């Protein structure tokens, strides 16, 4: 039996976590990113740094793509130094970006036409779960693809939700997840700013609400960033500008009202326009705090 080798293209918080989990599981892992820091971390963990997507994919049976958007996916797959140029026929491409379902279908179909197997596989769980090999994958694709790379999927995921054979199903599920995630971040921000304006201690608010019915995964995960005033990005404001934009476009195409998405997207767009796009998505609280004329932790302005 041929030893399974993996490639991870795009070493952001989720991609790097997946690459580290693969290496920890003893799967030879080649990673590519434009930034040197994640490449160095992967190398220190026993992985291998590649100079291009093509170099990472050469010889790999499982090729995970963790870029941000459709344009980046197109480039790392089919560009001059793209993974398809060196991948062996029958290699399994696992496409993890949040894309419009129709965009995902086009990419998967092109991979199949090139002689590859493709899995539509958006992920969820956050940076720490990625590092722990505990993410969730919303996946659709042929049985053969899942079987060929089962050890790699087991290394990075606590749960792989099989949503059918055809591409698009995984991405449709991610749209629903991102609808809730984006709205919940905006709601967290509203709650924290209202609490601050009320003179409440935000650490106490965090402790109490996480044990009460009003909590959510996003409140538990993002609230501490507001409490500490540390907006180091794991998922940035601009990610949700993109993702909630996809949700809104999907809903419009289906003639389905999403008023809470519309309100949350407006907030994320405003935060981005005010220069907060590169900060953690929880930084939308800064926009509301400025409107409320209240100071949050880490904020020197009145």
Bin the strand percentage: 5-15%
Spatial extent as radius of gyration: 20 Å
Low-confidence segments, given as residue ranges, are: none
Spatial shape: globular
Distance between the termini: 65 Å
Number of domains: 2
Please state how the strands of the largest beta sheet are arranged side by side.
3-2-1-4-5-6
CATH class assignment of the largest domain: Alpha Beta
CATH superfamily of the largest domain: NAD(P)-binding Rossmann-like Domain
The SSE string, one letter per element, is: EHEHEHEHEHEEHEHHEHHHHHH
> Please, what is the average pLDDT?
97
CATH architecture descriptor of the largest domain: 3-Layer(aba) Sandwich
Number of E strands:
9
Q: What's the helix count?
A: 14
Helix amount: 40-55%
- CATH third-tier fold name of the largest domain: Rossmann fold
Helix- and strand-based class? alpha/beta
Main sheet specs: 6 strands, parallel
Protein name: L-threonate dehydrogenase
Keywords: Carbohydrate metabolism, NAD, NADP, Oxidoreductase
Domain 3-hydroxyisobutyrate dehydrogenase-like NAD-binding: 168-288
Function: Catalyzes oxidation of L-threonate to 2-oxo-tetronate. Can use either NAD(+) or NADP(+) as cosubstrate, with a preference for NAD(+).
